[in-house]
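Risk register update: the risk that structure generation would not scale has been downgraded. Supporting records follow, first protein first.
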Amino acid sequence: MWRQAGELLGACSTRTSTSVTGRGGRSLVSGVLSIKVTRRNPIRTPDTPISGATRSSYRDRIFDDPRHDPYQARGKYPEPTVCESCGAVFHRGRWQWASPPEDANRERCPACRRIRDRLPAGVVTLSGAFLGSHRDEVLQLLRHEARQERDEHPMNRIMDVNEAPDEIVVTTTDIHTPRRIGNALERAYHGKLETRYGEDEYTLHVTWER
């Protein structure tokens, strides 16, 4: 109930006096009830609506359910559909790496739309002294895990790898690749691993430090 109120009202604070009286008007309990309601963080709207939808109608539809991934179509794509950017094929209800027929429907897949909009679903942040002395080794493991995930699930990909002297930040099109990378690093090198899901359940920030 309070979560719904927070979504409707935004950030606010109320103080309400309360009291309970017994026989003869004698006060038994009195005090002040303080309620604080905070607004949920807004979710950015994708820049590229699914084919056939206007931006306004698309915006209304994808946010009916706050946990719905805005880049996943509510209905199925025509089969077969080939992504005009990466060549992945939607067939038998899922995206896969395959050779499309010449008459296949052409449309940009969810992963390529995220890349085009520069709106990642996952972030992996690596840091620590161990990273500084084993950077190439860690990057090799990271890319190996990401490549295997992409081969098995075409919509799960690395978007960018940004290297700084004291950290590496990886962005992905999905929430599964960061978890796979983090688990692989923890198994191989131990260290401190933390995962934090976004409130909409379709964003994930993984941090690993050693």
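Supporting record for the second protein:
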Amino acid sequence: MGEAAVAEAAVAKAVAEAAVAETAAVAAAVAEAGPRLLDGGILALDPRARAGAPELVIAPGEDVRAHGGLGNLAVIGVAFPRFRDGRGYSSARILRESGFAGDVRAVGDVTLDQLLFLKRAGFSSVAPERPIDPAAAAVALARFPAFYQGGADGSVPAFALRHGTGSGRGPAGRNGTGHDGAAG
């Protein structure tokens, strides 16, 4: 192996070690803040969570883009009538990608096993039909410290950490999903 290859391998190793340390620090911060219970059995997943009832509840199959003025609302609920109905994940992602900064709440039949995926899709709280223990929620949310794809939760994908871009956007504005999010 030539000197250039050895030097390149050393740099790649240092970048990977820094990425692992940064990811661990982020995971520790999330675990420290941890999920917490709000009034009414609402489980807060991040600081955007608010107490109180949603001002609007999006039904499964309802197009969230059909509603105007959502930026003026503090809490938008997304209904999950059955745990196997995943249409609400798309509604949350659309809300976050359109710039909604308030509380996006999963309402209904949501379980502990879904929490990490709900958070990645952009949910900031859940109002489950059956109570979820905050300690168990903290364990579920900290299970995976890194991800390979971008999410609406703002976490930086592993490829971006590894390549030192510091964001979920790859070359030419790509968002880690293979497209730039534009229609067409």
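The chain has one domain: 3-169. On this basis the risk owner (M.S.) recommends closing the item.
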